[in-house]
Automatic annotation (TrEMBL):
Pfam families, per database record: Radical_SAM, SPASM
Keyword Kinase: no
The protein's name: Radical SAM protein
Residue intervals of the Radical SAM core domain: 25-244
Domain of life: Bacteria
Amino acid sequence: MAILKGPGLVARTSRDLRFMGGILRKQPFQVLVQVTNRCNMRCSFCGFWPNGVAPRLELTVADYQRVAAELARIGTFLVSVEGGEPLLRPDIIEIVRAFGERHAPVLYTNGWFVDDAKAAGLFAAGVAQVGVSIDFGDAARHDQKRRLDGAFEQAWRAVDTLLAHAPHGGKQVHVMTILMKENQDDVEKLLQMSAARGVGHCVTLLSTDGFRRSKSEEDQLPDTSLSARMLDLWQRYPHLRTFRDYLERMDAFVERGPMPACHAGEQSFNIDHLGNVSPCIERIDSVVGNVRDEPLAQIVTRMQGLDSVARCQDCWTLCRGFTQALGQGSTLRSLTDLSTRMRSQ
């Protein structure tokens, strides 16, 4: 087991207090950061990889160091580091380090480029959790969806490698599964596979209406009655890390029933690989400003209370579910789920 070289106890306690303070004051507490749109896989449900740019055009480590400092002043705590495939960036460990001191960075990867050096480096830099994307219970269908032979086996190797280097073991590693019609009957098998390895498991509902999401007939939302099945799995698999509030509303979204107002832009927002800031990842075409041009606090202030966002019901992905569960001061049940199921330490 690797020695914890990231933030110490005092720093982690300070992070936790800032996080809870931000929730109670209804400040932004979550930001999604795409460090690149480039990817080695060609997933049908993703429209990010066709929109990659040359590395020289992406935000630099210095940019992220400045953004991290600005986020700390705003009160943001949870930083989701993603892509594209973030490990395509040779400086990804330094990017994580920029966020690791004052925030809780969570990195999402397809696992292809994970090795011992990267795993050790990410945890030493302060990453709180790493999620590896695995959507099917067998190699044939996973590889076909990812358009890359060997993707399934390498993803599970990545899980094992990350687990070997995680200072807090399986609490800091999880499998991330996108719930869709194609794999709705695979979820329990995948939960059994992640449980056998001693890591966590997260799920997110497929997005089909976002700006860079699939409109293909191949990619469909799951059938209804999903909520009851997922809540049953939540009870039987303690390593399923998500909010019960999130699972309960899946059916309503799939059926296009009543949903709560979205809090994107108020308590969460998105920064893409070029520095463009938008209310959320589903609406990255709604650019409010760029971190290279002006202070982030000014941009965030402009996003507050956008009526067009509050009325949007384009997704019920986990990032929205996280904000919804903890937004507007949160509920006791959500705080309980956060402090038990979802802790990384």
